[in-house]
Amino acid sequence: MGRDAVGGGQPPQSVPDHLLDGRILGPDIEAAAPQRLGEAHVRQAALRLVDGDGDSDRTGIDGKGHVSRVERERVQERLRPYNIMTLQHMASILRFLIPGVLLLMGGACAPSDSSSELVSGARVEAPRGAAPAAAAATRPRIVFLGDSLTAGLGLPREQSVPSLIQARLNAEGYRYEAVNAGVSGDTSAGGLSRLDWSLEGDVDVLVIELGANDGLRGLPPAQMKRNLDEIITRAKRRGITVILTGMEAPPNYGPLYTAEFRQAFRDLADDHDVAFVPFFLEGVAGDPALNNGDGIHPNAEGARIIADNLWRTLEPALDRDR
Known about the structure:
Elements: E1 19-20, E2 23-26, E3 29-32, H1 39-51, H2 69-79, H3 87-109, E4 115-119, E5 122-126, H4 132-138, E6 141-146, H5 148-151, H6 161-172, E7 177-182, H7 188-193, H8 195-198, E8 203-209, H9 212-216, H10 221-237, E9 241-245, H11 255-272, E10 275-277, H12 300-314
Parallel strand pairs: 6-7, 6-8, 8-9, 9-10
Antiparallel strand pairs: 1-2, 2-3, 4-5
Helix pairs in contact: 1-2, 6-12, 10-11
């Protein structure tokens, strides 16, 4: 869903290389060799800083623009009272200064008694008194792999389905971390291509919400089925519990296409023996009161209905001891 589902975005234009053989290039711009600053330029700038005079007729420069040793020493002596730092001095200072600044910034931004952080879009509340990194590292993950319906297009992040599930997890006393791995416009092929990095960390449950954009584009259901089959197979191979959610194709492709599309999800659930939600948008699709103006993406109330429906399938897969 997302940009591809609404309005059909154009593919990005290719960008030509901008650097070639040390020359700066650009469309409709003639190549130009890079400029170099010699000692004469440095000397003139230094003298201008000291006494406001950039006269190039000063002595100490030969015909090739080289500065004599005597002239360099004279300029250095005149600059010394100004206490100008060299780049080496600045680098030394920054090497010690930057870590301190970052530490101060981190301390200023951290709450005193509780903390929270965004993990791939879903807000994760850490227990009081616990460091955010440590809390996140110890929590098993529930990854929501999907498109704009998962990402929460048109909604604040906290109203997306994964964030609502996170709030429910916290309220029910589960220590899981909900990870929003939804990407607007993604297809089943896109979800497969980013599966490995989406499953980084201690992933316990994978909720798959993909296929809507396959249907909107009229892609072959068999192709979508192969992609989802590979996602489920690789997740189960890692010992991850899988929940598959189904989707409906638009009716304009004809009854044979929509029937084959719908059946692909049911066959996958049966073949892999995974928990199955037949229609991700159950009770929401087609209701203007529960969708944004595009008629496709759920509004805040629609997202709450989806989260409630999903919770009934998700909760039996959770372990309170984890």
